[in-house]
């Protein structure tokens, strides 16, 4: 009898203990969920604060970069007839354009908005603008159709994304190898196709790139590595924000990487926009034919000439956005002896060196395009 009573007591005590254990486990689960939620909130607050600080800092740096470019504008005009000084100024200006591109990218990742351009621009000019924002711009060749134009609100985003892809292509391929940009019309819009001759991408890198390019929300900037790799994250955020598509991972004809930007018809303009061309007054009422301008590396011996019709003149607010002077012989310099022609040459050369006019033809007021 005593043993039976003891057994019942033990079973009752065991049941109570199990009940308490279940209550304790439930309490631990509740505390764990609360802790994870609070930790997520802290991380989100820290990420938000970090982005706010970076956004403010990048805005300040962008303003300083714009002031520097305005100063260089004056110097380029002042020393337009001195080829050596002009080449040195272009080198400084070109470096400034790369700095400005990186500052814009970081600002975008932190919630900032790109400037808004008033008018459309040809796909060729958009590609030239992107070309002028990377270090090895002279390795890039562009094949485009000038009759297709990108709407004003998409000009700067597409140029920034293309510049990131070109920078990636030139960085991860051997020096001296070509990088091609082919612009093709497709039934759903237009594609910018970037092909390099690098070593390609392994599957892990492809998966990471695909995840960043397809992101439809904020990007965790603390997860971009050390040093951080902003390129694909910037591309994905801008593509999602403005409604175009970016993909990488295909193999180029040269065994490297093929990257594609697909612009839908909704971001293409029905208006035919003329490519960058001379703005000199036509003679006898005849309109000069536009010149196809080719890239030239920055250097004292390669930046001194102009085309026979003169180089396109850069405007402050509107007009063509890409100007790339072609290589010329030493005799071409003799054709520009006047002060005005020297100023025009310097101004136009400088336009390419900092990614052309987009910094001048966009409104830097923050906010969505419809505001």
Overall description:
With 371 residues, this protein is an alpha+beta fold. The protein folds into 2 domains: 46-111 and 293-360, no CATH class; 116-274, 2-Layer Sandwich (Heat Shock Protein 90). The protein contains 8 helices and 10 strands. It has a 5-stranded mixed β-sheet. A 3-stranded antiparallel β-sheet has the order 2-4-9. The chain has a two-stranded antiparallel ribbon with strand order 1-10. The longest helix has 77 residues, at 2-78.
Question: From the helix content, strand content and strand pairing, which structural class follows?
Answer: alpha+beta
For the largest sheet, list the strands in their spatial order: 3-5-6-8-7
How many structurally independent domains? 2
Q: What is the average of the pLDDT values?
A: 74
Strand percent estimate = 5-15%
The CATH topology of the largest domain corresponds to Heat Shock Protein 90
Helix-strand pattern, N to C? Answer: HHEEHEEHEEHHEEEHHE
* Rg, Cα atoms, Å: 28 Å
Number of helices, where a helix is a run of at least 4 consecutive DSSP H or I residues: 8
Assigned CATH class of the largest domain: Alpha Beta
CATH superfamily of the largest domain, by name, is Histidine kinase-like ATPase, C-terminal domain
Helix content: 40-55%
The stretches of 5 or more residues where confidence is low (pLDDT under 50) are 277-339, 353-360
**N-C termini distance:** 87 Å
Strand element count: 10
Summarize the main sheet. 5 strands, mixed
């Amino acid at each position: 009898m005593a043993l039976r009573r003891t057994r019942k007591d033990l079973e009752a005590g065991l049941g109570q203990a199990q009940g308490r254990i279940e209550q304790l486990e439930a309490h631990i689960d509740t505390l764990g969920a609360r802790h994870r939620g609070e930790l997520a909130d802290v991380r989100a607050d820290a990420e938000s604060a970090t982005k706010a600080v970076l956004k403010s800092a990048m805005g300040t740096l962008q303003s300083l970069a714009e002031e520097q470019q305005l100063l260089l504008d004056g110097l380029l005009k002042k020393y337009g007839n001195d080829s050596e000084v002009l080449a040195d100024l272009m080198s400084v200006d070109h470096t400034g354009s790369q700095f400005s591109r990186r500052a814009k990218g970081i600002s975008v990742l932190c919630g900032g908005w790109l400037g808004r351009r008033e008018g459309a621009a040809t796909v060729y000019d958009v590609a030239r603008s992107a070309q002028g924002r990377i270090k090895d711009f002279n390795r890039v060749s562009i094949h485009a159709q000038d009759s297709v134009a990108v709407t004003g609100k998409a000009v700067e985003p597409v140029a920034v994304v293309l510049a990131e892809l070109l920078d990636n292509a030139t960085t991860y391929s051997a020096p001296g190898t070509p990088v091609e940009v082919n612009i093709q019309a497709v039934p759903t819009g237009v594609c910018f196709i970037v092909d390099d001759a690098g070593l390609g991408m392994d599957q892990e890198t492809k998966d990471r790139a695909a995840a960043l390019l397809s992101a439809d929300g904020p990007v965790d900037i603390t997860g971009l590595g050390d040093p951080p790799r902003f390129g694909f994250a910037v591309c994905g955020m801008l593509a999602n924000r403005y409604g175009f598509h970016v993909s990488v991972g295909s193999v180029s004809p040269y065994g490297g990487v093929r990257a594609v930007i697909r612009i839908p018809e909704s971001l293409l303009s029905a208006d035919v926009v003329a490519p960058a061309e001379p703005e000199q007054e036509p003679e006898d009422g005849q309109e000069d034919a536009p010149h196809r301008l080719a890239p030239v590396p920055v250097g004292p011996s390669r930046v001194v000439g102009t085309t026979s019709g003169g180089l396109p003149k850069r405007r402050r607010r509107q007009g063509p956005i890409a100007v790339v002077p072609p290589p010329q012989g030493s005799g071409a310099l003799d054709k520009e002896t006047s002060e005005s022609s020297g100023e025009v040459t310097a101004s136009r050369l400088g336009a390419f060196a900092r990614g052309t006019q987009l910094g001048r033809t966009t409104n830097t007021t923050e906010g969505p395009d419809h505001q």
